[in-house]
């Protein structure tokens, strides 16, 4: 791995890689993060393309990609810090700026990113869709993972039917049409690193994207699903910078169906039950 890191960065490696996540020190003293994605073929170049795509002016800071090949990704190290209200407010504004950078279509991959990408350790198809968000979200996000979760026994037939019913009326639940947003795509709290770098109250850096064109409420719903320090501050700053459409809070459960089903596929029935509960709440909406 040392030789590989040296080849990818163009620098000799003085120490490592070692630790979790693995760090290596280059000959000039730079500390880098080395991610071995060989277990998920194509994940490293997909993540590299995603990191480059979501690094937009005025958006959340993103670690620079220092090198990538078919199985290994090397990025700069994010300086450590802590979550503060000031950093959260900044993050809300910057996340709105990232989303506003847009995408060519719903489902579109980052430039240079593969159509067959990954979210966690499961495949995710990125195929540009010409129609409305709701149709794409049901067809390419919810239904494939619903089938996979049902097949592994994470949902029973009644639960699967509840989710399928939501997909059947998703157009009525989706809210006003919006243009494709530039999404991180896997925006749970573990992929937000709070750093003292950036001055003042610090900043929230984004790592490990599953980037694609989608609906901006999806990133916000994932932050809500797994929790984030000062989330209320983030959402208020986001809404002030880029006002959300009426009813967005009622649509959180809709946008959470995808990550819940992904987790059901990866980890089993507890997440399947959460997906079914979300679907049943949505079925009660007018």
UniProtKB/TrEMBL annotation:
InterPro entries with a match to the protein in the record: Fructo-/Ketosamine-3-kinase (IPR016477), Kinase-like_dom_sf (IPR011009)
GO molecular function per UniProt: kinase activity
Ranges that cross the membrane: none
Key words, A-Z: Kinase, Transferase
Annotated region described as Disordered, given as residue ranges: 1-25
A Pfam entry, by short name: Fructosamin_kin
The family this protein is said to belong to: Belongs to the fructosamine kinase family.
Record protein name field: Fructosamine-3-kinase
The organism of origin for this protein: Pseudonocardia alni
């Amino acid at each position: 791995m040392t030789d590989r890191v040296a080849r990818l960065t163009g620098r000799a490696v003085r120490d490592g890689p070692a630790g979790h996540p693995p760090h290596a020190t280059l000959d000039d003293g730079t500390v880098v993060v080395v991610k071995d994605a060989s277990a998920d073929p194509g994940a490293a170049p997909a993540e590299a393309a995603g990191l480059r795509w979501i690094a937009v002016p005025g958006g959340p800071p993103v670690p620079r990609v220092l090198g990538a090949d078919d199985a290994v990704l090397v990025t700069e190290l994010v300086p450590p810090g802590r979550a503060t209200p000031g950093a959260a407010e900044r993050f809300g504004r910057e996340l709105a700026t990232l989303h506003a950078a847009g995408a060519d279509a719903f489902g579109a991959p980052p430039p240079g990113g593969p159509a067959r990408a990954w979210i966690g350790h499961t495949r995710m198809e990125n195929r540009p869709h010409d129609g409305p968000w709701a149709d794409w979200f049901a067809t390419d996000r919810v239904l494939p993972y619903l089938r996979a979760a049902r097949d592994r026994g994470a949902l029973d037939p009644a639960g699967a039917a509840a989710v399928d019913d939501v997909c059947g009326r998703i157009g009525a639940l989706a809210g006003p049409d919006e243009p494709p947003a530039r999404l991180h795509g896997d925006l749970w709290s573990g992929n937000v690193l709070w750093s003292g770098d950036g001055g003042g109250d610090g900043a929230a850096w984004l790592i490990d994207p599953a980037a694609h064109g989608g609906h901006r409420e999806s990133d916000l719903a994932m932050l809500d699903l797994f929790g984030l320090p000062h989330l209320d501050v983030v959402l208020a700053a986001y809404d002030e910078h880029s006002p959300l459409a009426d009813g967005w809070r009622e649509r959180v459960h809709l946008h959470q169906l995808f990550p819940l089903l992904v987790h059901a596929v990866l980890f089993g029935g507890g997440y399947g039950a959460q997906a079914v509960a979300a679907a049943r709440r949505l079925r009660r909406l007018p």
